[in-house]
Structures are given as C-alpha cells and as structure tokens.
Amino acid sequence: MTDPTAPYHAHIYYDAAERPAAVALRKAFGEDPAILLVGPMIDHGVGPHPIAQYEVHFLKAHRDAVIAAITPTGLRALVHPLTDDDLADHTSLAEWIGEPVELDVTVLDPPGVNQGIPRFGKADF
Fold first, then answer.
1. Whose CA, among 16, 48, 65, 88, lies 20 to 30 Å from 95?
2. Residue 110 belongs to a domain with what CATH number?
3. Is residue 26 part of a domain?
4. Do 107 and 34 meet the contact criterion of CB atoms below 8 Å apart?
C-alpha cells in the first residue's frame, strides 16, 4: 500500500486516568488540517475495541506525522489502513503504539466486505 492517498485510521485508547491526555490529543488533531475526521470519544468498548477509544481518519501521506503526534503522549494506539480486509487491517497490517490492546476480532468484517471504506472520513461509524 504505497498510495499516499490511501485511507488510514488511528484508534486512540485511554482509561480514566489517561482521559485528559486523550482529550488534549483529540483537540490537537481537531486543529490539524491533515486530519479528515476526529471521532467522538467513546468511553466504553465498542466493536473490536474492548476499552474507551476514539478514531482519527487521515491519508497515508500523514501516517508518520500522526504517529509522531501520538507517541509522546504515552497513550496506546492502533494505526491501520482501510483495505477490503478488516481483519488484516486490525492485525497484520496494523501498527501498535504502546502496549497492544487485545481486540475482539470475531466482530470484524470478512475479507472483501469492509464496512469501514464507505464510511471513511464521515462521523457515522
């Protein structure tokens, strides 16, 4: 996946003690024109994500800058492309920042049916 316009997500994870850092990072992402969408903070598990998290959407061209913004916060994050294989996106194609979170991969779309692609850059995920 070398196309600089390929869609990417980052899931920023946090617990109660980390919430202020997550809020600050979310605000910074909201002011960054390279970020296409900053999702709502979800203070509970949802989908494959067992703990609180929010998403940011961006293009591959901005991947390194997004990772550089997350890393010094100490927050855990999953950075992954959006392809037609949701399982691979969240596993073999993904990069963890910090300690990985065990995802519930049983709820992910089967290869070829990734529901994330049509929703990329929109708030209805």
1. 16
2. 3.30.70.1240
3. yes
4. no
Whole domain around residue 45: which residue ranges?
7-119
Helical spans, DSSP H, in the chain: 19-30, 63-70, 86-90, 116-119
Instruction: With CA atoms as reference, report the closest residue to 22 among 32, 12, 30.
Output: 12
Tens-binned pLDDT, residue by residue, of the chain (125 aa)? 579 999 999 999 999 999 999 999 999 999 999 999 999 999 999 989 999 999 999 999 999 999 999 999 999 999 999 888 888 999 999 999 999 999 998 888 777 665 554 445 554 43
* Residue 6 vs residues 13, 63, 83, 87, 89: alpha-carbon distances, Å: 23, 10, 9, 17, 13
